[in-house]
Amino acid sequence: MSNVDDRINLAVDWLVRNIRTDMTGAAGWGWVPDVPPNPQDTAEVVCALSEVGRSIPDEAAVVRLLRQDSLAEDTRGPRVFRAPIDMAWRLRALQCLGYGPTDPSVAACAAALLAEQDRETGGWRMSSRSGAISVTATAEALRALVGVATSNGTPNAAAEAVGRGTNFVVSALLDDDVRFQPLYASAQAAIVLSLPEIAAFGGKRIERARELAWENILRTLRRGGAGVEEEIVRRGDVTDAWRHVSLHWAVTALAYAGGRLVFDPTFRKALKDLLDLQDTAPTLTTRGGFRTSGEGFVTTYATTQAVEALGQLGQTLNERVNPAKVFDLICRDEGASPADPQDVISARGRSVVMNNYAGAGLLAIGGPAGLTIAIMSVAFADHLGDIGSRALVVWGTLFIAVSTHVYVTTRFPTVPKGRIGTAVFALFTAVVLPVVTFLLS
After folding, report:
1. Do the domain assignments include residue 298?
2. 381 is in which domain, residue-wise?
3. Is residue 302 one of the residues assigned to a domain?
């Protein structure tokens, strides 16, 4: 879709504008524009731009930075980027730029990842030899090593490591491992298990594990659990917080499901929320960049993750959506016709949808039914007693109130639903119920 392409173009423009050169002449990106460039954030940008088929600005200087695993000291000490998570991103980036297994930096990164794999579980830690096994580090290591998993067409040590790592991810998901319950973890697992090279390592178990990951993503999104989550990573003597933009990860993971999930209402809402995080105003210096959250600020890692999400989504939309379908969806969303469905009420990400004709039909049935219940409760008040008759009156009035609310909501889609609900509630509690109570007294 053109709008998706436009959003990607804006994000790419922001990334290109914010490339920086360090004191050595190497170029790249920091986690925000005013932070010196580093190999890991630079690798993320390279991977994102490659995913959407864009060229890398000042490529020679960028490669020079990617080949470095330590930078000059800053106020916190030496800037070292040798943790497994760093090596995985740098390996992926170098492969995106066309460097093969024989390249010295590619070989060094791959060897470091193989050495860091936990022999017992098959997973990887964020930091070298310390901390718990990390879903993030494992997923990124698998995505990086799968590119060097064959040499001269035959499996090698990397292929064996990918097999063990994949088995860890699949087994943990099937066993409902708590490490995979956070939204970002389920999303990362779903992405890595969606890659054809990874899926080839197994059959039904991988499919089932991937389905469980997608189910957890949708369930968490319906609860509104797409916040910024953190993991701790130690680089040399410096401890950092690795921030996960869970909404961005979730949209990316569901986009990998293609047409099976991208038309799910929960995904559509998540995509809308993600697009709302992009600064699009022409006067903003951050125009094109994505924020970490509604209260957050524009960062490189949020923008690169959004670019990957939109790039993956664009492939599906270009295949499945035509202009007529887009026009129909816009009309339905804005309620241009009484036949267009409207969200009557939403709960936990699930919406009750009806058009005005259905609302009128509900009023035609619910109104007389509620009135009949109320009249009969008044007529037989002596037999029912005060409590019984009044309870039936309230029950009958509820029928009328609900059907009235649905009709008005579908008839006037531009009026906020909260305002309509408040007005209907006030009308029936302040006018109708007191009148009926008076008749029964």
Report:
1. yes
2. 336-440
3. yes
Do residues 128 and 244 both lie within one domain?
Answer: yes
**What is the pLDDT at residue 418?**
76
Distance of alpha carbon 139 from alpha carbon 134, whole angstroms: 8
Euclidean distance between CA atoms 101 and 117, whole angstroms:
19
Write out the two tokens for 312: 């993956």
For the chain, the farthest-separated pair of C-alpha atoms sits apart, in whole angstroms, at: 94
Residue 169 tokens read as 């991810």
State the alpha helices, DSSP H only, in 97-134.
104-116
Same domain, 270 and 295: yes
Euclidean distance between CA atoms 406 and 344, whole angstroms: 6
Q: Are residues 156 and 242 in the same domain?
A: yes
**213 domain residue, yes or no:** yes
In contact, 430 and 423? CB cutoff 8 Å? no
pTM, full prediction: 0.76
361-406 pLDDT, tens digit per residue, is 888 888 888 888 877 877 777 777 777 777 887 788 788 888 888 8
**SS3 labels along 394-423:** HHHHHHHHHHHHHHHHHHCCCCCHHHHHHH
Q: Which of 294, 321, 348 is the last residue in one of the domains? A: 321
CATH of the domain at 81: 1.50.10.20
Task: Mark whether 359 and 254 lie in a shared domain.
Answer: no
Q: How far apart are CA 268 and CA 100, in angstroms?
A: 38
| pLDDT at site 1 | 44
> Does 175 lie in the same domain as 46?
yes
Structure-token pair, residue 183: 């939204």
- Please indicate, yes or no, whether residues 210 and 274 belong to a single structural domain of this protein: yes
Closest-CA residue to 222 (of 346, 354, 309, 329): 346
Same domain, 288 and 377: no
Q: Helix, strand, coil proportions of the chain in percent (round to 5)?
A: 60, 15, 25
Tens of pLDDT along 306-357?
999 999 988 777 656 555 566 556 565 665 566 667 777 766 666 777 777 8
418 C-beta neighbours (distance < 10 Å), count: 8
